[in-house]
Design goal:
Layout: E1 5-7, E2 14-16, H1 17-34, H2 39-49, H3 53-77, H4 83-110, H5 113-148, H6 162-166, E3 174-177, E4 182-185, H7 187-203, H8 208-219, H9 223-247, H10 253-276, H11 279-301, H12 310-350
Helix pairs in contact: 1-2, 1-3, 1-10, 1-12, 2-3, 2-12, 3-9, 3-10, 4-7, 4-9, 5-11, 7-8, 8-9, 10-12, 11-12
Length: about 350
């Protein structure tokens, strides 16, 4: 069975290459569906396969850039990418990321970076999970009230409507974002991207986990447009990060290419699935993914108080994330197949 293993020329480790393809397919599906690079899933997965952590991060970023490019092109064909919004947000993303990175350097000098970052991550994810499920609950309450009155709730109506308050801020210049259907001050997307870029710089992630809900709840983007536009942003930041890590000699390009073979297939499935799973179906699945991530971080924090539990909690955290990848990939694929079957049946009925 030696043919199933391949030597990585830069890191010098021997890797089970079908595992790279499986991981690429799974994260490609999830990334194409949620609009996330997936660093929180891929890095521990590569670490389990045998990569040292520095190479796991660098290889993940290189793979993320390529996968996001594929997903962005696919979403662009469906009209899910607001390129104008994405280009405006680059300004805030770059500036925010740099400020966040400088704060990490400061925390590193104080010797408290690991603990602070994990607690910030935990608070942020808990807030995102609350926001998603609070929004779902409010939306369902609106549906029940409309049904009781013999009416139908507007398909575009949301539970949380913070974006309506933010859209009232009329600081020039004002911009029309036609794909997202938004008219607002240009400073709003710049502020939102600065905030998400700052958090991404502190947490050391691509930012999709933060930016996608920010586009929905602060900008007011329809969910499928938020996914596509976020992928456009992840693609740009990923290409920059890939160049940086490759220059430092911490990117295993052979592994990244193998993963991209799987990701190219998975990203098509994830992107197409957004055609059949709209709005709140995406949000609920995203909320469950965030809860899984919260549990994994809590497991990573336990050894700070019970050092003897470190080996067990590390294994539990990494397998939790990879189990989440498999479960979400299966859910998205099944829903896509069901949606495609319904579409084919409807066409036959009309024909």
């Amino acid at each position: 069975m030696d043919w199933l293993y391949i030597l990585m020329p830069i890191s010098g480790v021997t890797i089970f290459w079908p595992g790279l393809i499986i991981l690429g397919v799974g994260v490609g599906i999830i990334g194409g569906f949620f609009g996330m690079g997936g660093a929180w899933m891929v890095t521990p997965g590569l670490n389990i396969l045998g990569f040292p952590m520095a190479f796991a991060i660098g290889t993940d970023i290189a793979h993320m850039a390529g996968k996001s490019l594929i997903s962005t092109m696919r979403h662009g064909k469906f009209g899910n990418v607001d390129y104008k919004l994405g280009l405006i947000m680059i300004v805030g993303t770059v500036a925010g990321f740099e400020v966040g990175a400088q704060m990490i350097m400061w925390l590193e000098r104080l010797g408290s970076v690991d603990k602070v970052v994990r607690y910030i991550y935990l608070v942020l994810l808990a807030f995102i999970a609350w926001m998603v499920f609070h929004d779902v609950a409010k939306r369902r309450a609106k549906q029940r009230a409309a049904a009781a009155a013999g009416q139908e709730v507007d398909k575009l109506a949301t539970g949380i409507e913070w974006h309506k308050t933010l859209h009232k801020i009329k600081i020039p210049p004002m911009v029309h974002l036609n794909v997202a259907g938004i008219y607002c001050s240009a400073w709003l997307p710049i502020f939102v991207s600065f905030l998400t870029g700052w958090l991404a710089g502190i947490l050391g992630i691509g930012g999709g986990l933060i930016r996608m809900p920010a586009l929905i709840y602060l900008m007011g983007c329809p969910t499928h447009v938020a996914v596509g536009t976020d992928l456009f942003e992840v693609m740009i930041s990923g290409l920059y990060g890939a160049g940086s890590y490759t220059y430092k000699g911490r990117t295993e390009l052979v592994a990244a290419i193998i993963m991209l073979i799987g990701a190219a297939m998975g990203a098509q499935v994830g992107s197409v699935a957004t055609k059949y799973i709209k709005g709140y179906g995406i949000r609920i699945a995203f909320g469950l993914a965030v809860i899984g991530c919260i549990i994994s971080i809590i497991l990573k924090l336990i050894p700070n108080y019970f050092p003897e539990a470190k080996a067990a909690t590390d294994i539990m955290a990494t397998w939790l994330i990879n189990g989440l990848v498999v479960a979400l990939s299966a859910y998205i694929t099944v829903k896509m197949v069901q949606g495609a079957k319904r579409e084919i049946a409807a066409k036959k009925a009309r024909g």
